[in-house]
Amino acid sequence: MYKKIKEASQYIKEATKNETINSAIILGSGMGGFENRFDSKYSIDYGDIPNFIKPSVEGHAGNLSIVEFGNKLTAILSGRAHYYEGYDISDIVLPTRALIDLGINTLVITNAAGGISENYEPGDIVNIKDHINLTGSNPLMGKNIDELGPRFPDMTDTYNKELRKLAESISQDIFKYKDGVYAWFTGPTYETPAEVSFAKAIGADLVGMSTVPEAIVGNHAGINISAFSLVTNLAAGISKEPLSHDEVIDIANQSKDKLQSFMELFLTEINLTN
Length: 274
Fold this sequence. Notes:
CATH architecture: 3-Layer(aba) Sandwich
Distance between the termini: 29 Å
Number of strands: 9
Largest sheet: 5 strands, mixed, barrel
Radius of gyration: 17 Å
Helix content: 25-40%
Mean pLDDT: 92
Order of helices and strands: HEEEEHHEEHEHEHEH
Strand content: 15-25%
CATH class: Alpha Beta
Shape: globular
Structural class: alpha/beta
Low-confidence stretches: none
Number of domains: 1
């Protein structure tokens, strides 16, 4: 695995002429096309990067763009592979690992999620403050690679408190700030009403099928993590309507302007202060 990470990071390093990349963002549903708002200094198709997986899900383009925010460079990962697509979890997190190897100090992760909390409604943007891993899997399982991080990393402050404060401050003129706990399910089925009831009982406010693997490896490496869910539907048993991916895409498209406007300001401030 370490060799595969190095192969990917070396390719990106050469393609970007050895320029320093300060931060990175993984675009989930609702953030598709975010990279097109800016002039990319570099643009690389996932298919050209050794060991990167080309996503198969609608709304995940599979392209790495390098864009300047606040006089520093940010890597924009347009889409991700998901665990439910059948890939090994170590391959799911390889793009994150490769960018960490290149020296990023901050990773921002976005996703579309189902809302459990009665305080949420479709279109809300929620800052993740903690997560619950309900998949039975973990990207750190197996022999630890000491160069990547410690064998038993602490997870107390996975989602950086200072970045949560920054997000709350920046969001004031764009949307009502909310935070919550995200529960990771494997998918691709949406959660059953019983599963949603269980997740709520153990403290989850959101349910989804991504984000946690990347957050775990980012925390493992000791970088700053910030994550956001766009609530695209109320979870099963909360909503009275059947769940569908079309609904997710529709709400994501309706909400993307405010999410993307916020993210531009957020990434700029991150690069100015970190």
